[in-house]
Amino acid sequence: MVINAFRIPMSKGILVIVALTAAAILATGFSIGTGAVRISLSEIWLYVFHGYDGPMKEIVWNIRLPRTLVGMLVGANLALSGALLQGVMRNSLADPHIIGVSSGAGLFGIIVLILFPHLWSMLTPIAFLGASGAAAIIYLLAWKDGVQPERLILAGVAVSAFLGSGISALLIFFSDRVNGALVFMVGGLSAKSWPELEIILPYSLIGMSLAFIGSSHLNILALGDSNARGLGLSVEAARFFLTALATLLAASAVSVVGLLGFVGLIVPHSARLLIGSDYRFLLPASVLLGAAVVTFCDTLARLMFAPLELPVGIMMGALGAPFFLYLLRREAR
């Protein structure tokens, strides 16, 4: 019954996944091969897969490849987090940045960068604590004989505004220490390398695995709370688990690149237009499309005003704000 309600042709789902995989691979090649020094796809193949010891090996292995992989995982994590939150809240306007989860991670991240820079290696678990605290507050504010998606959205927006004011206060009170925090505020991949990849990779693997396992719960939640309970699902437990999972994914991404907004909003909605609302297909589609979008936008941000490099968050904001307004008008209609 549940599967039939969301069934799409298997061939279409597989075809879209294959196309998005190809898009992610192309975005990867574009990112590694493009810059001040251009590197052909054949050279990239030799450097990456055959250990070729050519003149560009240092650029490929220690600069572009790790930065690209970090960008892909960040995009995948944020997109998957947004897809989970949209499924839990049954609202296409939900994403970790808008409802406050990213703001909690960002506030704790800013505290570490400004007040305790020696704890940089602990940034990811500390950011997760901040995101978890924000999620817990949102749940408490939204709880009244259970949690309704509408109350979660409203509580999340209020908590996001409150935490954002805390971030602004820190930047004002410690204005002499904000150089590193400014890039963190908008989200950037500059100088990201293998250490950042080692930080985010375990969280990505764990989060994606659990999310794919929980995709059937999202399909059931989409039928409404009453129907979900009738099918034997513990609605509150499922909603809490999936929200915690989305929090983990968002916090890991924020701890590495900062407050990169709109990825969790744009990508899942776009993936839904391509592949439908069956979360068995929507979640992997969001992962692949998120990886491709962030990688492609980061490459454009590097090239548009070269040698000046824009943080990828500025590019995502330029794309995401109009898209958000479009969704608002569509919801109003």
Automatic annotation (TrEMBL):
Keyword line: Cell membrane, Membrane, Transmembrane, Transmembrane helix, Transport
Domain of life, per lineage: Bacteria
Transmembrane feature ranges: 66-85, 97-116, 122-141, 153-172, 201-220, 240-267, 310-328
Gene3D superfamilies, A to Z: ABC transporter involved in vitamin B12 uptake, BtuC
Localisation per UniProt entry: Cell membrane
Membrane topology summary: Multi-pass membrane protein
Membership in a protein family: Belongs to the binding-protein-dependent transport system permease family. FecCD subfamily.
Annotated protein name in UniProt: Corrinoid ABC transporter permease
Segments forming a coiled coil: none
Family matches, as Pfam families: FecCD (PF01032)
Statement: the UniProt record of this protein carries the keyword Membrane: yes
PANTHER family reported for this sequence: FERRIC ENTEROBACTIN TRANSPORT SYSTEM PERMEASE PROTEIN, FERRICHROME TRANSPORT SYSTEM PERMEASE PROTEIN FHUB
